[in-house]
Amino acid sequence: MIKYKNWKLIFIIFVVLLNCIPYIQKGTLRKHVRVAIVCGADYVKITGKKGNELYNDFVVSLSAKFPLYFNSHNKPVEVNGKKYRGTLEIHNIEQKIWVINILDVEDYLKGVVPCEIGKISINLIEVAKAQAVAARTYVYAHLNQYQELGFDLYADTRDQIYAGVAVEHQLTSWAIEQTDREILTFRGQPIDAKYSSTCGGITANFSDIWIGESPPYLTSIVCRYCKKSPYYTWSEKIGKKEFFINLRQGLKQVGIILSKEELIQDFRFIRNRKSQRVNKVIITTTNGEYEIKNYQVRRVFGDGTDLRSSYFFLQPEGDSIIIAGRGYGHGVGMCQFGAIEMARMGKTYQEILRFYYPETKMVRVKY
Ligand SMILES: [Zn+2]
To answer: Average pLDDT of the chain?
Structure first.
């Protein structure tokens, strides 16, 4: 039998444990998130409850009186046949229909984590937890991001991929519950928890990819965990003629239009010494010099879509050019393939997050 004295000790241990994860300041964060799930349609089909009436595949066109609100009724609301938790707010923005899904952050994550980390098995549950914390942190760092449009996040790669109820999975939902309200902070603020598929051996600095200084938690680190990724290294062989046609097209996409007579004579890569990412490219033509900025590099050297990463080298070979690259995605923050491997090796989600976001602190959101 446990003596009174022991109960007292257990109570003290319980209180200490409870305080292990500090809470973020109350009142600074909110419980719900506003996600734009339809961005500029002529009409949408809605199933849900408006006032006391239940509508089934109700067509909302521009002639409606906006804003319109729909709630769930025993089952989730539907937009064009896709189910969503929470409620819907429909607006007319510049003669187009926009649908905003308003829901609890924890429910939103259930429709995000499976899209971002893919299907996982129980032995990889720690990576789903790490992804849940990263995705939740991302939300809190980007609240009110598009305030003028009335929402916080897009439901695609501009923010995080969110696909509603259809993609929800028992294991990922459990991982979200297990990390309930946990986020990463730096100096008391939610961090910009960036993540991408594969870093290729070393993560990128924030400043390799975007304008601005790299915070300590988004500074390049060596990652030995993503070697099994199909994108760890990759190469493409392309004819020189085609390469230059693509390059001209790429330049056009970032607003640099070369005339037919203007010939590309040289290009010079400026890299970050540690991360090896191309930070800048100086292109010399018969007319002068052009500077390609870090956030334009992948677009310029891609063939219509972005190049897999800005960690690449060009190697001429006869009439061809070999683009030898590493990694997939921007490479900043958590390397998802690396995180999967860490989970497989038995690391906890806290260890994974500490590794990819150094100098951050885990806290629990208090609304
Ligand atoms: Zn990696």
So the answer is: 93
Q: Which is it for strands 264-271 and 278-285: parallel, antiparallel or unpaired?
A: antiparallel
322: burial class by Cβ within 10 Å (0-12, 13-18, 19+)? middle
Angle (deg, nearest 10), helices 125-141 and 336-344: 140
* pLDDT of 258 over the 60 cut: yes
Q: Using an 8 Å Cβ cutoff, are 240 and 214 in contact?
A: no
Task: Count Cβ neighbours within 10 Å for each residue of 173-192 and write b for 16 or more, e otherwise.
Answer: bebbeebebbbbbbeeebbb
Phi-psi region of 325 (alpha: psi -120 to 50; beta: other; left: phi over 0): beta
Give the chain's end-to-end CA distance (angstroms, integer).
Answer: 40
Q: Are 34 and 90 in contact (CB under 8 A)?
A: no
Q: What is the DSSP letter of 121?
A: -
Please tell me the distance between residue 232's alpha carbon and the centre of ligand 1 in angstroms.
Answer: 8
Residue 195 Cα to ligand 1 middle (Å): 10
In angstroms, what is the span from residue 58 Cα to ligand 1's centroid? 47
- 15, pLDDT greater than 70: no
Alpha-carbon distance 284 to 291, whole Å? Answer: 9
Residue 324 Cα to ligand 1 midpoint, Å, equals: 17
Distance 335 CA to ligand 1 centre (A): 5
Q: Which tokens is 351 given?
A: 């260890």
Find the 148 Cα to ligand 1 centroid distance in Å: 36
Instruction: Give the predicted TM-score (pTM) of the model.
Output: 0.88
Q: Enumerate residues 6+ apart whose C-beta is below 8 A from 10.
A: 2
- Residue 56, SS3 per DSSP: strand
Say whether the peptide bond before residue 76 is cis (omega within 30 degrees of 0): no
The neighbourhood of ligand 1, an ion, using CB within 5 A, equals 199, 223, 226, 335, 338
Angstrom distance (rounded) from CA 176 to CA 111: 11
117 Cα–ligand 1 center, Å: 14
DSSP class of residue 264? E
Predicted confidence at residue 19, as pLDDT, reads 47
